[in-house]
Amino acid sequence: MDEEITIIDANTRNEKIKNFFIKNKKNFIIIISITLTLVVGYFYFDEVKKRNKIKLANQFNYAKIAFNAGEKSNLINKLTDIVNKLDTTYSPLALYFILDNDLIKNKDDVNNLFDVLINQTNFEKEINNLIIYKKALYNSDFSNENDLIQILNPIINSESIWKSHALYLMAEYFYSKNEYQKAKEFFNQILILPNSNSEIKLKSQKRISRDFGE
């Protein structure tokens, strides 16, 4: 008798499971279809990213080869196009190549390219801060005090590893303008900064000892 009851319970349970799957067949098909679509889409997107990276690498290398061969026609447009691709590897390399070889004379155009990297490209935070610092370094020869501070504010008002570099740049800027008190204030900020770069901190100490008699 107990065995018969067990068989009946098992059959009932199997029938319920069967009915559940039949009743929800459409939902299962939809879920499986969506899952397969997401998996295929992920691998497709990943493959597209890899192909685009290879394409950008080739474009950048061709631009360098063309420059070294003296073929500068349309070179700026090609490098600018790479910057505007918003790639975390080759976009900054293209801009640095432009800067290193002084290919663009218009400062506004260069700053616009910096802004593309800083505001539109998906860098890690400290990489982005490094590019901000490089923008400030580029502008330090011709910008006024307010513009330079405005560029560096995101770093100066943070705990970035580049903060001591930004402070040192401002100290040297004011020193070059013979504004020694402002320069000293920035050098001193570096000395009390907990995570100051050791080399920058040492240079600041030497500056204060040598130029301010402390």
Descriptive overview:
With 214 residues, the protein is an all-alpha fold. The chain folds into 2 domains: 1-122, no CATH class; 140-214. The chain has 10 helices and no strands. Helix 2 (25-68) packs antiparallel against helix 3, helix 3 (75-83) packs antiparallel against helix 4 (90-100) and helix 4 packs antiparallel against helix 5.
Comma- or semicolon-separated keywords:
214 residues; mainly alpha; 10 helices
Task: Provide the number of structural domains.
Answer: 2
Number of helices: 10
Number of strands: 0
Summing up helix and strand content along with how strands pair, one would put the structural category as: mainly alpha
Helix share of residues? over 70%
Rg, Cα atoms, Å: 30 Å
Largest sheet: none
* Relative strand content: under 5%
Residue-averaged pLDDT: 86
How many angstroms does the end-to-end distance come to?
A: 102 Å
What's the helix-strand series?
HHHHHHHHHH
Overall geometry: flat
Poorly predicted runs are none
What are the SSEs and their pairings?
Elements: H1 2-23, H2 25-68, H3 75-83, H4 90-100, H5 107-120, H6 125-139, H7 145-156, H8 163-176, H9 180-192, H10 198-211
Helix pairs in contact: 2-3, 2-4, 3-4, 4-5, 5-6, 6-7, 7-8, 8-9, 9-10
Describe this structure in a few short sentences.
The chain has 10 helices and no strands.
